[in-house]
Amino acid sequence: MAALINPDYTSLVLRVAVGAALVAHGMPKVKGGWGKQSGQWIATMGVPASAARLVTLLEFFGGIFLIVGLLVPLIAAFFAIQFIAIIVMKYTKMKAGFMGGGNKPGFELDFTYLLLSIAILLIGAGAFSLDALLGIL
Q1: Do the beta carbons of residue 123 and residue 11 sit within 8 Å?
Q2: Dihedral pair phi/psi, residue 101, rounded to 5°
Q3: What are the residue ranges in the chain where pLDDT is below 70?
Q4: Are 79 and 113 spatial neighbours (Cβ–Cβ below 8 Å)?
């Protein structure tokens, strides 16, 4: 059975939607001193504060790269690694469940972003991307 929608359009929609959400998520961290506040919070769980700075860079600039379609497989792989790490941290350090509840956080959104990152990685940048324009595909 043929695909109902051209994979190039699917990639474009996924890249722009996920990229925009991650830029929006990273923007407050950028404005707050490139992850300084989140670095202090994450350090309380035994994770180096520099990890928060890396996450901030990835969310903000990686999101922009997804939107324009630049280095998509690499950026999607980095996001997948990031969300695996977040899920593991929430599960082990914060005792989070999938949906959370009460005072405990959940990792359902992180799991969704993980799956979307993997989907983008598997589908690729598509024809409507800087990767395609530059011949990086």
Answers
A1: yes
A2: 145, 145
A3: 1-3, 34-41, 43, 45, 137
A4: yes
